[in-house]
Structure formats: C-alpha cells, structure tokens
Amino acid sequence: MTATITPARVGARPGEKLPLPSRNALTAAALLLALLGVALWSLSGVGLSWQQVTRGIEYAGSFLARAVPFVWPTLPEILWLSALTLAIVFCGTAMAAILSIPVAYLAARNTTPTRWGGALGRFLGVATRAAPDAIMAMIFAMVIGQGALAGVLALGIHSVGMISKLTADAIEQVPEGPRLALRAAGATKSQEFWGAVWPQVLPAFIAIVLHRADINLRVSVILGFVGVAGLGHQLSIAMQTLNYREALPFAIIIFVLCVAFEIVSALIRRFLLGAPVARRTLAHRLVRALPGGAGAGAGSGAGEAAGAVGAAAEGNSFGRAAFAGRVPWTADRLKSSALLWGTATLLGASIALAATQESSFANFWKNLGIAASRLWPPSLPPAKWEATAIALTETVQIAFAATLLALAGSLILGVFSARNVAPSPAVRGASRFLLVVIRGLPELLLALFFIILTGLGPGAAVLALAIGGVGLLGKLFADSIEEVDRGPERALHAVGATRTQVFTAATFPQATPALVGHTLYLLDTNIRSATVLGIVGGGGIGYMLSSAARINQHELLALLLCVLVIVFAVEGLASWIRRLIA
Amino acid sequence: MHHPAAIQLDSLTKRYGDTVALDDVTLDIAPGERTVLLGLSGSGKSTLLRHLNGLEQPDSGSVSVLGAPVATARGRELRQLRSRVGFIFQQFELVGPRTALENVLTGALSELRGPRLGLLAYPKALRVRAAELLAEVGLEERAFQRADTLSGGQQQRVAIARALMQQPEILLADEPVASLDPESSQQIMALIRELAERRGLAVVCSLHQVELALGWGSRVVGLRAGKVVLDAPAHSLDESAVMAIYQRAGDDSVAPPARQLDLNGAAA
Hints:
By secondary structure, chain A is mainly α. In chain A, 78% of the residues lie in helices and 0% in strands.
C-alpha cells in the first residue's frame, strides 16, 4: 500500500498523469514561448524576403561596378585616421574603466557599503547601459562641438554599464577569506578592497576592458555618422555623397583594423593572463577567449609549474634581494610593469592625439545651458504619436527578428564549435574560425552592406544584427556547451547511445539555462543596436531620433525616453526569466 | 604570569538563530600561555576565536583582549586592537595572484595609511622585515613567487609570517593544520610553537587532532555545544580524559585513543 504512493510507481503506471513541473518552470516556459511568438511575428513583419535578397545580389553587381576602381586614401592619411580612431576608443574605454571601479564596488553584493549603495551602483550600471552611445555622442556634440571629445565622453559613459556589471559579477565570485584575513590584521575597508579583492579581480577586469575596447572600436565607426572624427566620419562623408569608390576602401580599412585589434587583444589577454581563471561568469569566459587559452580549471596550470622551476633556480638570488629590500625583475613584475607603462604610454599618446581635434571647453557652460534649454522639457506633438509608435514597434521587431535569426545560426555554429559535440576537429576549427571572422565585422559595415543590397529599411538592420549576433552568441554557446558536466555524457556513451542521442539527452539539457541566458542578453543589446542602426538608415526609431536631433531637440529627449522605457522593460523581462530558470 | 590576563572572557554568549554557539563562556588566558581549544566541529571553537579579534560580536557577556574591551571597539580603535592580535586561518587565506612577500606585507597594513597595491607601494624597511620573517619560516627563496603556486604547507608558513608581521602580542590559530597532510601538520604546529615561544606570545589554537594537542599546548580547553567542559593544564591530562569532550550525553562508545606524538622532538 505504501509502495503505490511513491512517485516512481505513479510515473510508471500507464495512463497516469506525470507530475506537473514547478510553477517557475511553467512561467518561464510560457514567457519564452511568448517571446518566440513575438520573434516570429517580428520576422514576418520586417518585410524580409528571398526575392529582396536575390534582387539585392543583382544590385550588388551594379554597386560594385560603381565602386571600382577604388580610390584609396594616401598612406599617411590612413595611418592618421586609424590612430585617431584608436585614440578615441582608448580614451573612452579608459575613462569607462576608471569610472566602472567605484560603480562595481557599489553594485557588488559583497563589497557594497550599504543597501542604498548597492541600489545606486546597479542603477548607474543599467542607466549608462540603456542610453545608446550614438545618441549620447549627438547630445555631447551639441555642447562641446563635433570632434573627438564628444565620442570619448559617449564611449566613456555608455561603456560603464557593461564594464561595471561584469566587474561586479567578478567581485562577487572572489573568495572572501583573504579579505577576512586582512580585516583580522587591522586593515581599513579600502585596504581590504585594494589588498585582497582587487588583485583577485584584476585578470577578469583586464579581460572585460579589452573586450569592451573591441566593441568600442566597432561602435566608433557609427559615432562617425553623428560627427565624431576618425575613420567612421570619413566613411559617412563618402557614403552621404554617394562616393562609393572612396567609401569602400574606408570600409576595408575599418574591417582590417577591427580584425587586427581583435587578434592583438587576444594576444595581450593570453600574455597577461596565461593561467586560466575559474570560469562561471561571462567575464571569465572572456579571459579564455583564445582556443589555446582554454585549459584546466582554476588551481594548478602549466604556468605555475614553470614558475616553480624558475623560482628554484633563482631562489638564492631572490632571497638576497628580498633581504636587501629590493624587488627583482621576475616574469610577473615584468608583465605588470609592461602592462602599467604600456597602458600609460598608449593613453598619453591617445589623449595627445584626441586633443588635436577641436573641441572647446571655452563656451562649455554657455553651450550646456543652451543644450539643456533645447532639450528640456521633453515634448512630442500628438500628431507624431502614431508615427512614433510605429517606429518603436519597428525597432522592437528588428531586435526580435535579428535575435531569432542569430539564435538559429548560433545553434549550428555553436554546436559545431564545441569540443565535446563537434563532429570532427576540422569542422570545429572551421566554425571557430568563422566565428572569429564574423566577430571582426563591425555591425555598421554589415548594415551599410545590406542597405546597399536590400535598400533602406528594417530588413538591412535585421540581417546586420543577425550576423553580428552569431559572432557573439555562437561563441558563448560553444563555451557553454563545452562547460557541461561530462558525467552524464559518458554514462550515455557507456550504454551505447549514438552521438545525437548523447547530445539531445545529456549535453543540450544541461546547457539550456546558459543558452537561454545568452540569448536574452543578445536581445537586450539588440534593442539598443537596432535603435542606433536606424540612424544610418536601418529603419525604426533611430531615424526619427537623428532627424529630431537636427530639428527639434525637445522631441529628441521625448523619443529617447520612449527608447529607455522599452530598454528597461526588456531588461526587466530578461532578468525575470533568468531568475525563473536559475 | 604576574601580568594581567592577555584575554578575559566573561559570560560570553552567542546565538545564531536557535542554535547557541557559545553558552556562558568565562575564561582567562595569561600572557605566554599556549592554549589548545578542542571540540567537535560546531562546538564553538571558531566562533570563540572570532570573538577575540572582533570578527564576531557577542550577544551578551564581555570580551577583553590586552586590557581593552573588544565588543565595544569600533573603527580605528578596533583596527588597532586587531593589529595586536595575529590570526591564522585553516584555509591560509592568502591573496593568490600576489607574491609571498606581498602577502606577508599585508600584515603591516594597519601601520600604513591608505591602500597598497604591489610590493613597491610598501616602504623598504617593511620589505626587509617581511623578508626576514619569510626566512624565519624557511621560505626566503620563495619571496617573489605567487602565493597560489606554493604548496599547502608553504602557504600556511606565509600566513604565519603575515600574522607575525603585525608584531602581535597574541596569536590565534583556527584549525591551522586541518587542510594539511600529517607531516606538514607536525612541522607547522612545531613552527607556531617555536615562533610564539621566541616572542613570548600567548597562543590560542583550535585543533581537532587530540594527539597533536596534548604534546603541544600548556593548557587544554574543551568545548561542547558552546560550553566549556574541560579546562586543565595539558600535563595533567591523558587521552581518555580528553576524549570525554567528544562524548555526547548518554553515549558511552569512545573512539580508541590515538597514539600521542612527541612534538618537542619535531620542533628541534
């Protein structure tokens, strides 16, 4: 009698109902299905069709005919513009990195001094992340003029959102013990943080900042379209004058620069952070961005063994140095000095370069007053409400449709790139390489390319964001699939399951929460990117924003607030679903 | 021993929700005394130690260390008090990515104003002092090696040097050898004893290995469910007397006594 009420027996009886899943799981499933429905509706709504794409290919032919022969800028011009673009990116990223440290300190649960501080830190992170960088650059350009500084400030403020969020996550992962030890020795709060927490966060922080510099380089091209100096600005001038023979070379230079920067930053990461870090958060994934960097978990790596051998050989001289109070040039000291002085030199040069662009603080306060009075109060005439609603819907559709397409592409490339499920090493290598190339393509170039192919409108933005999304999402998927527990896979192999059976029964279910989380993250970024791409002709609210910026800034602020409401709504929904499936 | 007590606990009580971690503990520890705290895990050993440097606050009763009340100390006063009390942790708690020498130097943070990052941020005189302490624990050759590349025993030596860097008057150790193999355990216990004797420090060390405890301490305090159930000079005790600490009410089966190790030999 007691045996009949055990769940196993109930489940085994034919015709008996299975126990219901938990309420959280049901809610999450309903929400995800609803999101999928919205995405399918969006995809049909953005007017993307095969005919359009095939017709676009014909256009591409005539476009290329108008674009050749290329008119290349002179070499000094190329070098100068590239240096200027990089200088703006470095200054902006550095500014964001410095601002992010206090914000992350406030936002991280284990370091925040008060509950209010934590709320403030998280609010600052979300707020800076929500305001699109190109719009910020437009507004700054009104106050301090077009040039470099508006771009630096826009990048410097917007990037705080991502850097502080990921850094706060990394701070929360740090073991508490060393901090407690410093507290027990009588250290102050700030001594605890810089002495025990920061050294443990530093590798992740460097990886996050380098990754953000990668992103900012791509973003700086879009900033060129709102008047920030550099390669993007030259590209926008050439595009606006329909001078494709000059535009295409700029596009090629930008692409090469982006790929080169991605490779250099990956090399820097590997040089500085050879030992892999515990890999749970997005930040830690960035640390091991190179395939070669993916090794054993935290604790003992190859680098440590090498360090021990070196120390034994040089031990005596190090001992003497220590007694004399000297600090010898060990490999670690060389690395940290190289990092410190390299960053300082680069930043100094960048500031000098960016300062050559005319932005003037002479009329700063006056201009600020003028800009504020032009922006405030936000107002939108009722005649434009309908158009705004349509444009906002279009932006949301672009984001959803692009995320759906990116999800489909990333599932294929992600599975082929993951070591534990890829059909063969050759397939894995090829799809990893493809992901790197896709990540190197700035979304703006893709958008311009598709605008040429499909004409102005949401379709171009969808394709651009979808391809750009595969670059990011595919890599995150591959990493998450590789990180599943190997036990269940081995167990299924042992009972004679096929590769597909192992994947569907063991690997995929374990990776699902991570995959859902990454997809929601992409949706979140795509809403903002869809807005920004509208500025260059990708449809949606972005176009209205850029014309409002020129004509009526009261409308600009009102529209911006509408965008922020949507961004916050999607962000809130995403974090709700993440909590439900956690 | 004419000096006032190094540590005075008076009716110390601490609760976590419904569980009583410390129940009316009254204890005096004299300067230079080597006290071993014994008891099952959860008997209150760690909680007791953490009250002695203000990492925990009592619910009632008083804690006085080196003549100063700990429970009411705040801010600068509390940090000053903590700097006079060295603490050694079970898990060493070194800052992994930093060198052994820099980890030792963090023990001197209370002497300095403001945060420090990197060896060069510390005054040279302190670097020399830290190097001498590393030599004293036998690790001068490892001074510039990352702490997370050292073995467990070596890491605990660095942690001991860090505690001594504070120039403490009292040394507290919370299960300092629980994460180490038997050989390293003996070496670390002998090292703590030797260094403390050389400096005349009072030591309070919690342990769960009875065989390590008897040869090492001058006094044994047994805790059970937060109450002091044994307090006697170590030389007056044999293992069966100590094993009674681990007995639960109504439980007659006592684990067979383990062999006693001669730690005086190991220390030499």
